[in-house]
Design goal:
Helix 3 packs across helix 4 and helix 5 crosses helix 6. A 5-stranded mixed β-sheet has the order 1-2-5-3-4, with helices on both faces. The chain has 6 helices and 5 strands; from the N terminus they run E-E-H-E-H-E-H-E-H-H-H. The radius of gyration is 14 Å and the shape is globular. 46% of the residues lie in helices and 13% in strands. The chain has a single domain, classed as Protein-Tyrosine Phosphatase, Chain A (Alpha-Beta Complex).
């Protein structure tokens, strides 16, 4: 499995793959201090979130899990995610299965800090190689950023 990790800024990176048992040692070796998992319990994944938490702890990584699906997207979920980004030790690596949700959530956080518009966020995300081909996610992202 290719370990593609996109550095967004000095504090936050996005892993564009579904981690396996070895990924957490790699995250630790690369200097990450925290891992946030956005996969839901009912999607297929290499290791369960419970197992991820154990692997993270074994590698001295802080671990948080937010199960994000297009059915449960909410402003409060993004707010909670952003609070974790502010409070967890950095650098942080965020992952889902492909990086789409992770990329969107991280971009929402960064752009709200910079006061950019939702449209600018989508453009910047695409320039960084994130495809937002989930219409619900794209609409939600624009709305969230424009309101914050």
């Amino acid at each position: 499995m290719e370990m593609n990790i996109k550095k967004i800024n000095d504090n936050i990176s996005v892993a564009t793959f579904d981690p396996n048992e070895n990924s957490f040692k790699t995250f630790a070796d690369k200097g990450f201090k925290s891992v946030i998992n956005l996969q839901t319990e009912d999607e297929e994944q290499n290791v369960s979130s419970k197992k991820e938490e154990t692997l993270a702890n074994d590698n001295n990584l802080n671990y948080k899990h937010f199960g994000v699906s297009k059915d449960n997207l909410s402003q409060s979920m993004v707010d909670n995610f952003r609070q974790e980004l502010e409070s967890l030790p950095t650098p942080i690596v965020v992952h889902c299965k492909s990086g789409k949700r992770s990329g969107a959530f991280v971009m929402m956080h960064i752009e709200c800090q910079k006061n950019m518009s939702g449209e600018e966020v989508i453009e910047q995300a695409e320039n960084m190689g994130f495809e937002c081909d989930v219409p619900e996610l794209e609409l939600f992202l624009k709305k969230y950023v424009n309101e914050h």
